[in-house]
Structure formats: structure tokens, C-alpha cells
Design a protein that fits this description.
Four copies of one chain form a homotetramer. The first copy, chain A, has 381 residues and is α/β, with parallel strands linked by helices. Helix content of chain A is 34%, strand content 25%. Chain A has two domains: 260 residues, 3-Layer(aba) Sandwich (Aminopeptidase), CATH 3.40.630.10; 114 residues, Alpha-Beta Plaits (2-Layer Sandwich), CATH 3.30.70.360. The longest helix of chain A has 22 residues. Chains in contact: A-B, A-C, A-D, B-C, B-D, C-D. Chains A, B, C, D: Its cofactor is Mn(2+).
Chain lengths: 381, 381, 381, 381
């Protein structure tokens, strides 16, 4: 089969069969099958995490390439024939393409192995979407043993297909989660004065939370607070005794991170005083800031420039998203970058129920992975 | 078995086995069983609705007594040994006691039938909690045929056990439902500027809805708007593309009802303009205003006074709740009233997950039903 | 001069020359002049308050008629040739017509005095608009000495000219004032994170205050809370260190009044905790509930019916406004009522900068005052 | 007199006598007097704007040093004996020190003129605080004629005395003003349903405006929106028919600037639809982004380092404030920087009613101005 057909067919397979974080059983099985068909010996080092080595010369250095493999609890709204078959689950962050491009790169590397001044390790990691994430356990179980450098590539819904985004230093933010439960007093919807209405109180809370960013954080410090989920109430005419909210906080600085954490608590304490509620509040630190190695980023940039043309290299501002690729970069030098996946003029952000990509980018994505690995080994013998 | 033991045991049986509106199959079966054991011939006139006649003299008048039999989608939070066995369903409005007191009254009437100047019809009606409600179909299928008067009694969590509340005219409000869906644009929680965040927008909506009552309705016109339920978002770090809210509107006047309906729509239209959302909005008219017959109310008051003592009669203000008993009163004269069920000093409103009642009121509740029916027939031969 | 011309000319004089509460010097002088020209002997019993007696038979009873004479700090927006000459002051509550109709009634009474079974006292009272109001001091200084009954009439912008509104019992609410100062921390508008922005915090406060009414007060209890004034900030680009708000609370029940007073304090205390502000809060009890005497109200209704036709008598719901006429009614039986002043289909509420009246009502207004006084004396000899 | 005593005395004189933008008559007079006493010939080129040249060799280059001279409409809250004598006006931005340090630098330059490889122009500019500002007219009237370089220094309340902050490129933001008037419908405070309450509506507006920044602007793009002033309502019990707000928007990018301008309008349009208000909205573009010349900035840094020590040089992030010094930099190369003025550990931001500075910095401030000018002329002959 033509490599392009292989990439598209493989991507659609994974797109149809998304699995949630830490539950990528079918996905991992399929990856192993593919790797074996290439003659590799995949090793399952966590329940759904796989590594596989492509060895040229054991005495030389090794570059790892990592793909994350999990999907999101999003209900797909795309009307395509390879639509998700698993209700409420979707590869809305494009990890289906990550798996695919790493499998494609593996094929290309095997074919060109004689030109590699070293070795390549493939890392298929579960659960990037769900902190604490899959990276920590992968590393603990040896994913980086004998690895000298690491690279990773993320498909990007708000960058045109054909373009690539390179970052020299910081790329991704601290990405934390908070969970809040408000306990009021239920009652009949017709008698609000006898109840404590947690939906009404949540409306003040959401508003005050959003304004932390606009009124209380230095405008020079990028920071985001998003309430992503709220569930409250049983029924239209029963006052909601309980309200549950969860959200995310993104920052690049420890001070700002701590200030927001503290302010959420103070707002809840004030609302408790005003409305006589009780509450539970926990704040979970997520992935740390992701910091690229400048040297490796530059090699990737040169490689991509030779494939896509210099006019297609962009240098975006750091992104407020979190990534557990940050943990690998705390251990070995490397770089993470983004590959444009958007149909021209039709940017749809990752995580949207309408996220989709121009499949023509899969080939170059795989090629950039392969060539970047080759160039890193050449330049850092 | 002692009648008191019967009442408590029966009430606990129904409390343990709550069923949602229109699905009261087990409940209806148990009611039929009980009625048959008293020698009556229950007739299933709707899928889960039952009538049964206690005939003394077919040439004389008939008083109907109605009990509603459905439970609510509330998760019980009472720690009692007769706690609901059906997860997420609870007799949080006390209809378990309504069934019980009507069964108890039936026993008492049968025993004292010779003193009745007429006949009694028992009406066990499904789905009071779920508009359009069970009353309309019961009436259509003959529940009021040959009925001259009707009475109904509601257990009340915010009135002390031992007291009774009588209303001469209006007692319950127009009780409507509204449902709103907001459609924004999903995306990654770290990039709010690329999405349209329906949770944030809902916080403005809820706030503006609540203020309709305080800023736009004549303060002399009792009116309530409650958002009872909101669900939005999949996940803490994905911006919620969709938000669903539902709530209730209570009014005593058609003008106010129509104004609120219109204002909800205008607020949504303005938020659409501001935030570029789409929305769906429907407004369902619920039960109409419930209007008692003054004469019947006075007979019930005298009856209750002789049983509970005059000091235990109260005349509450009309209630903002809705009741499909209103439909019966549009056909035949009658009255609805409330029976105190609260443990002293521990008022917990109906519909709360902590709703419970002092079971010692069951006996007098049944007795007042029976004696009121007897007195109505005596005074209106 | 024709009485109608007199009424219109007199009204326009007072409309052109409005004076604020307790400062009605020119107004009082003009009233005295008019009274003297009728042969009466006005007596200045407070700095700007006047009484004048029309005596028929000292041994018989006396009815007092009271007009309030002060204007409001409102900038008139009417484009009429008798527009207020005093910038920022306007007879936006129609007291210009009250003075005028009482002067007109005085002329009519004098002409018809032989038909009066007693005497009439004219009371021109300052400062109705500004609690503690002028009534208390007028009463202290003898305004009600030897007075047996009292009546008062208010022009009404939301009732058609030609109609009259009668109340048998409660007519006006408790009318209280609250004042709030919020102290934050100023700073440069470009650095909100270094300041405490009292304008932003006030936006939450106003919102929470308005929602007290919609979420925390029994919908059956009429209640209003209005923030009527806010001033904060020096300059567009300096963060406002201080914010001052004032408003009014209207209730018919002591419990509701006290609950709102307490809740305002609790909201401020919670906002202090959340935003680290300081605040000052005072709550001033205003005029008490105004309660009419049913007998006197009925005499006025019969009188008005004979003049305006029975179809023009309405019985409005009690009004949420406050009135220091309430103090007179605490001393002697009497009644207060409203006279429609609106151009057909063009209702503009009292206190609006666009408030104006159909001057054709002045004649009947004066006549109803005169005839009501006459009838009260006849029926209560 | 000792130069230090001169600096402190002069600063306190200007602090006591602050004048608002474009009205710096007394201030300008005093400056002229001081310059003349040094033997210079001040030239009044705008109503209150002055230039004065210190000539060494007309054939050589000229460095301009600019001080802004106006004060703010802030009521001073400092309890010092040199407190502002002009009620409601204060040198809360420290321009009193700017004038003083430029006068001090002039004295130093005159004394050391033989060591200057060129000439110095002193620019005392009015109205920095009040866009369109004084710079445009000063430039139009010749302030930069024959000027080759320009420098400016701002005292800084949030930087310790003894430190200096240098910026190589962008330093200050676009600083715009917006003004909003909302027109509703007045009425009596007790009848909100008959009025359109602009205070309540403003509370929603302020909230929505603040959230533009947190929800709609790329978190990587520094942006601020502050409502600095609101005035609404005449009186506590009259519903406010009109509300006036003004505020500032700060951005570093044209796109963000235009988006915020547009969003304010859309929010107003939506609120008009919801609440039936009318509004006026104008958006005034203020000072443009201030961009330093890297070369000149480095000379100032070296100069300051030799005076304060290298450990006292900081490189702050660009500031969100606006500065009309930006206009000079559009014409000639130069640099603007900040001089720490804070008492240790007691940072109070510029524009606060409590703003004050450690006067011991005045000497080094003057010296750095003088030496920087000298070094610029030496290195750019």
C-alpha cells in the first residue's frame, strides 16, 4: 500500500475507535500489531503504554519520538464516514494523527536506517489528557533509559495545514484543575426564600472567578481560568441543593498560580458568609511548564524548513495548554512543536466537537519526525 | 392491625418504593391490592390511575377525595431505615402520605358508612409532579363522572404537625416550565478567546433572569422565577460548547406570566447579539391557578377545628406552587388544603432531599378527610 | 379671574419656581400672599410650613386638608414654556399641583362656607420628599390641634386624568434609605492588580442587592430595593478608591424590613472578605406605613363618584412609595388618595424628569377636596 | 543653597501647588523664574509649555530632556506638611519630581558645560495626563527643531528608591479612553417595573466589560480595561434615568485594541435590546505605543550603572500605562525609563491618593539625566 493511503487509513481507524485516558486497550493492541508487522518488537511497559526501538548502532546515541494515544470525553459533531464509533468519546485533540504519524515515521526510518547515525525509540504514551498523565509512569518504567534526546509533535487546529510552529524555550503552561462543590439547601422552586439556591450562587461564583484574571493578575502575566463544567439541580422546579463545578487554571509563573489558587478559596469563603453555603474546594496541580531545548528546536526548524519551505515556519507565542511531554524534557534535552492541521481558513481549536484535520499533512508530519531524528543524531554525534 | 400501625407501615412501604410520574406501576398495584382487601373494586382508568367507589346510596350525592401518588427524581439524604430503595427517586413531596391517608380514610369511611349521607369516590392520581400531569387524563376517563364535590389534602413540611392550613379562594399559582439550550463554540480551556463559553454566558443569563422579578415586575404581584437545573460542559479543561438550563415561573396573573415569558426571550436575544450564541427556548404553560370553593373550605375548616382544636387552624397566604388539582376544581366545587407534617421547630420544605414528616399526623389526616367528606354530604344534601 | 385660569396660572408659577425640601422660602411667601388675598390669616408654624383656618363655627368640628410643597433635585426634561427656572430642581412629584388645588379649594370653601357644618384647616407642609420630612415638626408645632379629621390628595402620573384611586386601609409602604461607602485602593487604571477597584466591586454589590428581593424574600410579601445613586471615581484612568451608593427599601412588614437591612450588611461583610475592602453602611428608617380610615375613605369615594362618575373610581393595590402623611394618620382619622393626572395613554411616573400633568384635572381636584371636607363634616357632626 | 536642599525645597513647592492639565500657569511661571535665575532664556512655546536651550557649541548635536509638569484630579490622602494646597488636585503621578530633577540637571549641566560635546534642550511639557496631551502641540511649535536625541525619566512608586528600570524596545501601551452614557427611564424608586434603571443595567455592563479581557482576548496579549468613573442618579429614591461611565483601555497591539473597541459597542447594543435603553458611546484613541531606541537605552543603562551600581539596574516588563513621550520618539531616537521612588518595602502605585516618594532619589535622578545627556553626545558625536 502507498504510504499516504496507509497514513489516512490508519488515522481513520484510530479516529473511529477512540478510547479514554488509561483505557487505550484496543488502541495499544492495534499499535503493537502494526509495529510487529514492521518487524519491530514492541514492549508494553505500562498497562497501555508501548515502546519500540529501531536499532542501527547500539554504541551510538538514541533519539526518542513520543506520540500520545488517548482520546477525550467529547461527543463528535463531525458528519464524516469515519466518525467516532464510541458514543461520547472522540479524538478531538488529534492524538489519532500522532499515533499515525509516528507509525509512518517508523516505516520511513526503517527504510532509511543506514543513513541514521544512531538509534530511534518510539514511545506510544497513554493518558496525556488526564493528569497526572501517562508520562510519569512511562518514565518510571524506563521509557527514557538510554535515550539522549526526545522530540514530540502536536497537530494543531488553529494553524494552516502546511505550516509548522517552533518554540525555542517555554511552550506550554502550568495546567491545573480545580473542583468545587457548593452545598446550599434544597426546596420547592416556588419558595426561594426558604432555600439556599446553589445555581444562583454559582452564577455569582463563575462571574467572580472569571474576573480574577481581568482585575487581579498583572496584565503582563499570561493567565487563564476556565470553568469547563457545571452540574447542578435535579429538576426544573426543585431548588438545587448542590452544585458541582470544575475548571482549569493556566499560568507561566508560580506566584500567579498560587495567587489564583488562594483567590478562589477567598471568593468561596466570602460567598459562604453571604449566602450561608458550605463548600468543598480542591486544587490539583497539573503538568508543569514545558521548556524546549533551543538547540534541538533549531534543528527541527531547519529540517522542517527544508521540507515545508522557510515561509511556512512560524514562531507562535507560548501556549496556555498543558502537556505531560514537559516531564520528558525535565530528564533529557528535546523539543516539542506544532504541526498545522487546519483546512485553509477553517480553524477549529483542538478539543472542539468539530475538530478535524486536513489529512494531507500526515505525510509531511511523519517525514519531519523522521528527518528531525536523523538530523539530531548527525549534529549531536 | 391497629389503624395507626397500618398507616405508618403503609406509608413506609410507599416511601421505600417511590416511582416517577406516569411510571407508578408497582405503586398502583399495591394500592389496588389494599383496596381489594377492604372489599372495594378498584378501577384502573389510566395506565397507573385508579378510582374506587364507596357506595352508600346511589341516589345521593358523591364526594371525591383525591390523592396523588408519584415521587420525585430527588436523591434521598435522610438516614432512616425506610429510606428510598430506588436510587435517585424519592417521595420528597410526601405523596406516600397522601396515598396512605386516603387508604386510611377509606377504611374509616367503610366502618362508618351508615353515617354518610351519600357516597365517596377515592381517586388515586398519577403524575402530579410532571406537567401536563395526571389529572387531565383522569378527568377525561371519567374520574369526575357523578361526582358533586371534591377535596384534596397536601402534607406540608413548613407547617407544624398538628396544624392545618385552609384557603378560601386562590391557593396555588400558575406553574410553568421553561427550557433553554445555549449553543456556543467549544475549544480548549486554555484558549477562551477562540471559543464561545456557554458556562460564562449562562452565569450572566441566570443573573439577568433572577432580576426580572426584582426589577421588572410590579412588587405587588407575587411572582417567582427559579432556575432549577443546569448542565454544561464535558470536562474541566474543555470549554463548554453547550449549556442546558431549565426552571419554573410562578405567577397569579396572566399579564405577569406573559411578561416573564417574553422577557426571557428578549434576554436570550440580547445575549445572542452580545456573545454570538445560538439558543433554543421553550416555555411550557403548566397547571393553572387553583381556586377553592369558599363554602367547602369552611366545612373543612370546621371539621378540622373539631379534631385539631381551633388554635391549630391557620390561613396561609396563597402558595406559589402549582397543582393539577386545579383541573378538578375547574369542573366541580371543592377545596384543597395543607396538613402540617413538620417535626416541631424543624421545617424542611417539600422537595428537599431531607424532607420527612412526623408520622403521628397520618391518623388525623385520614380522619379529617373522612369527616370532611361526611360533613360536606350532610350540609349539601 | 376665572377659577380655571387661576388654577393653571398658579400651578405654572409654582412649577417654574421649585424649591428643595426645607428650603421652600419663596414658595411659602407666595402661598401666604395668596391666602391673605383671600382674606385668610396664614400662620407660619415652621420655617416654611403654614397653616390657615377657615372658620364657620368654632363649636363644630374641623377637617384639615394637607398639601406638601417641596420639589425634587431632578433636572426637568420637559420642553414647556413653564419649565423649571431653577437648574437641577423640578416639581417632578407634582407638589406644585397640590399647593394649587389646596389654594383653589380654599377659594371654593370660602365661597360656600355657609354650607359647611364645621371648619377647615389648610396645611401647607414642607419637605415631604426628604425624610425625616416636614410632617413631624408641623404636628409638633400644632398643625393638628383641634383637628378632627384629615384628608390629603396626591396627583398621579400613572393614572388617567379624570380618574381617582381610593384605598380603604394600607396605602403606602415603609420607605427607608440606605447609604453605603466602599473604600478600596486607588491606583493607575492600567494596573488593576495593584489596586482594589471599587467600581468593579460595586457592580457585584448592586447585583447582589437586587437579588435579595428575587431570591430571599417571600414572593407574597411586596418589597422593593432600589439603588438610586452611585458616584465613584475621579477620572477615567484612575482606579476608583471610593464608591458611594444610596438607595431605598420599601416594605409592608417589619420582618421583611429587618431582613433586608440585615442582608445588605451581610453582603457587604462577605465582599469585604473577598475583596479586602472597607465599608460604611447606614440604614435610615423612613416614613412608616400609611393606613387610611375606612369610613373617611368611603366618604371621599362617594364624593368623587358624584363628581367624576362611578366608572372613574379605581381601587389600586397599595403603593410602595412612602409618605409622611402617615404621621398625621397616626394622630387623627383620615384618608389619602390619588388623583389621575396623566394625559390619556401617556403615563409617566412621578419623579421622572418628564413628569407632567393634564392641567384640566386641577379644577375637579380642588372641588373633590372641598366637597369631601364638606361631606365629612356633614356625616360626622 | 546645597543642591540637595534645592531639590527637596523645589519639589515640595510644586507638590504643594499642583495644577491640572493645560492649566499649569503658576507652575510654568515658577519654572521660568528658576530657569532665568540660572541665566537661561526660557521660551514659552505653548500656553504653559516651555523650552530652554543650554548651548555649548551650535555646530554640534543637541540632546533634549523632557519633563512633564501637570498634576491629577486626585484628592491627596498623605498627611505631610507639604500636602497639596489645591483641593482635589495632587501630583499623584510625581511630575513635581520630574520638573525638579530637570531643573537640578540644568544646574549640573551648566556647571559642567565644558565637558559636553554638544548642547542640551530642556523641555517642560504640559498636560501629559490628559490626552490628546501636551506633546503634540509642543512638537508642532518646534520643541524638537534641531534636536538629535531625546530622553525622559519617570519616577516610579512601585520600584525601590535607588533602582532604575530600563527598557530596550516597547515600554508603554496604547492608552485609550472610552465614554458611555446610558439613557433609561426615571421614576419613583418604589416602582422599578415602570422605569428603566440605568444603575442596575450599568452593573451588568461593568461586569461584561471586565470579562472581555478574561474571556475574549488572547491571554498572551497584555490588555487592560478599567472603568474609572461612574456617576448615575440624582437621589436615593429616584430611579436613575441616566448613567455616565468612563474608562481606559490599554493594549500593545492594534488588533486587540480594535477588538475591545468593537466588543464594548456590541455589549451596549445587546443591553439596548434587552433593557430598551439608549446609549452614547465614544472611544478616543490615546497615546500610541512608546518604543525606545535600543542604543540610547544602553547608554542610559551604562550611565545609571556607574552611578547606582549594576545591581540596581532592572529590566521590567513593558508597562500598560500610556505616555505622550511616545510622540517625541516617533520623531527622534531616544529612550524613556523609570526611576525607583519607593520607600523600601512600601510600594504605592502612581496615581494613588497615597502616592509619595523618597526624596533622597532626586539628586541621583538629576545626575543620571545630566550624565546620560553627556554620554549620548560623546558616543554619538
Amino acid at each position: 500500500m502507498d504510504i499516504n493511503d496507509y497514513l489516512i487509513e490508519t488515522r481513520r481507524y484510530f479516529h473511529r475507535n477512540p478510547e479514554l485516558s488509561f483505557k487505550e486497550y484496543k488502541t495499544a493492541g492495534k499499535i503493537e500489531e502494526e509495529l510487529k508487522s514492521m518487524g519491530l518488537r514492541p514492549e508494553r511497559i505500562t498497562e497501555t503504554g508501548i515502546i519500540a526501538d529501531i536499532i542501527n548502532d547500539k554504541n551510538k546515541k538514541t533519539v526518542a519520538i513520543r506520540a500520545d494515544i488517548d482520546a477525550l470525553p467529547v461527543t463528535e459533531e463531525n458528519d464524516v464516514d469515519y466518525r467516532s464509533l464510541n458514543d461520547g468519546i472522540m479524538h478531538a485533540c488529534g492524538h489519532d494523527t500522532h499515533i499515525t504519524m509516528l507509525l509512518g515515521a517508523a516505516k520511513m526510518i526503517i527504510n532509511d536506517l543506514k543513513n541514521f547515525n544512531g538509534n530511534v525509540r518510539l514511545i506510544f504514551q497513554p493518558a496525556e489528557e488526564s493528569p497526572p498523565g501517562g508520562a510519569i509512569e512511562m518514565i518510571k518504567n524506563g521509557a527514557l533509559e538510554n535515550v539522549d534526546y526526545i522530540i514530540g509533535q502536536h497537530i494543531w487546529g488553529s494553524l494552516d495545514a502546511g505550516k509548522i510552529g517552533i518554540y525555542y524555550h517555554e511552550m506550554m503552561a502550568n495546567a491545573d484543575q480545580f473542583n468545587i462543590k457548593i452545598h446550599g439547601k434544597g426546596g420547592h422552586g416556588s419558595a426561594p426564600h426558604e432555600a439556599i439556591d446553589t445555581i444562583y450562587i454559582s452564577s455569582h461564583l463563575i462571574n467572580m472567578l472569571n474576573n480574577i484574571i481581568s482585575r487581579e493578575i498583572d496584565p503582563q502575566e499570561p493567565a487563564v481560568l476556565t470553568v469547563g463544567k457545571i452540574n447542578a439541580g435535579y429538576r426544573y422546579n426543585v431548588i438545587a441543593a448542590h452544585s458541582e463545578l470544575s475548571g482549569t487554571v493556566r499560568t507561566f509563573s508560580r506566584d500567579v498560580q498560587e495567587k489564583i489558587k488562594k483567590r478562589i478559596g477567598e471568593i468561596l469563603e466570602g460567598l459562604k458568609m453571604i449566602y450561608n453555603i458550605n463548600y468543598e474546594y480542591d486544587y490539583e496541580y497539573g503538568y508543569p511548564v514545558l521548556v524546549n531545548n533551543e538547540n534541538i528546536s533549531k534543528i527541527i526548524e531547519e529540517t522542517a524548513s527544508s521540507i515545508l519551505g522557510n515561509e511556512n515556519i512560524v514562531h507562535p507565542k507560548p501556549n496556555m495548554g498543558g502537556e505531560d511531554f514537559a516531564y520528558y524534557l525535565e530528564k533529557v534535552p528535546g523539543a516539542y512543536y506544532v504541526l498545522g492541521g487546519a483546512f485553509p481558513g477553517k480553524h477549529i481549536g483542538n478539543h472542539s466537537p468539530l475538530f478535524n484535520i486536513d489529512e494531507s499533512v500526515l505525510y509531511n508530519g511523519a517525514l519531519i519526525l523522521k528527518e528531525s531524528a536523523r538530523n539530531i543524531l548527525l549534529k549531536n554525534p
